[in-house]
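Morning F.,

Quick status update on the modeling queue. The single chain you submitted on Monday has been processed. Sequence for confirmation:
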Amino acid sequence: MKSVGLIIFVFALALVGCDSRQKVSISPAEEVITYSGRIDHSAMDKVDLYWPGSSVRVDFEGDSLFAWLHDEKGANYFNIIIDNDSVRTLRLDSVSRRYLLAAGLPAGTHSVELFKRTEWDKGKTTFQGFELSGSQIAVSKSQPRSRKMEFYGNSITAGYGVDDTSGQDRPDSIYTNHYASYASLVARHFEADFHSICKSGIGIMISWFPMIMPEMYDRLIPEDTASRWDFAQYKPEVVVVNLMQNDSWLIERPEYEQFKARFGKSKPTDEEIALAYRTFIQSIREKYPMAQIVCLLGNMDITQEGSSWPEYVKQAITGLEDNQIYSHVVPYKKTAGHPNRAEQMALAKSLISFIEENIKW
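Structure tokens below.
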């Protein structure tokens, strides 16, 4: 995919002037729109997007496209992908308004996809429909992707800091870009639809905040303890779990509040670590009896030489006696901070090779 660089633009209704040409409104409920990700469709006149990698796409004939959007905090960024080629970046504000996504397109059929780069802690984004302008407008439904994947992960999967070229791992949401994460890269390589259930700082036993992945993985709305995702809606052939990086740090911090809340005064034993991992993988297996599950580790220091964590994972899945569950360890990247674009690409290439060599789908 060719990139035209990081172009941040926000075109509101007031900026685009008067346009007397034919306009066609497309409501969120219309079948011509293709959605990807765990998205809340409970209302007819809007949909809510929370998870990174959630996307909204439409194919159409016309020379321009607008979207009506409302962002809860004004902190989310989206990629605008035009004709599967050029990628531009849109930052939303917290006012419900019309944004220009594409303009001056040549005659013919075009596709525009809105792809959520940022994590759910930046607030939800509400999509309220598209608006087209131009002559002889027609729309069509994109062909669904035949393959399906799902990823469970932490900041590595989220793409935290991937666009921070300073190497400082700055927390501003502009530097998080799930589109450049290994998860998104792998899914695009296999031309697969995918869901990403991830959060920076999360673990299986302990996180940098009160919630852990076993408490979050089955939610539609991440912060709603009563919310539940209907796993019957989406059945991936391949599930990738890349967790435990945060656990590996936090079990060594008995002074930390979440350590005390989860473990009391003593860190978990080797057996308890393996059991916690096994129990989570069993939960995934119960949701997806036919899926092939890749237990991935890497590429931060959880896989550095001498680490015990790859062995914990191997012990956990050996105890499951399931030949459709695999482990794959990606070597430590040997640099500080979160993976940059090159390191995300290296992680993606390693996982792609593993899947091509071991999984038939």
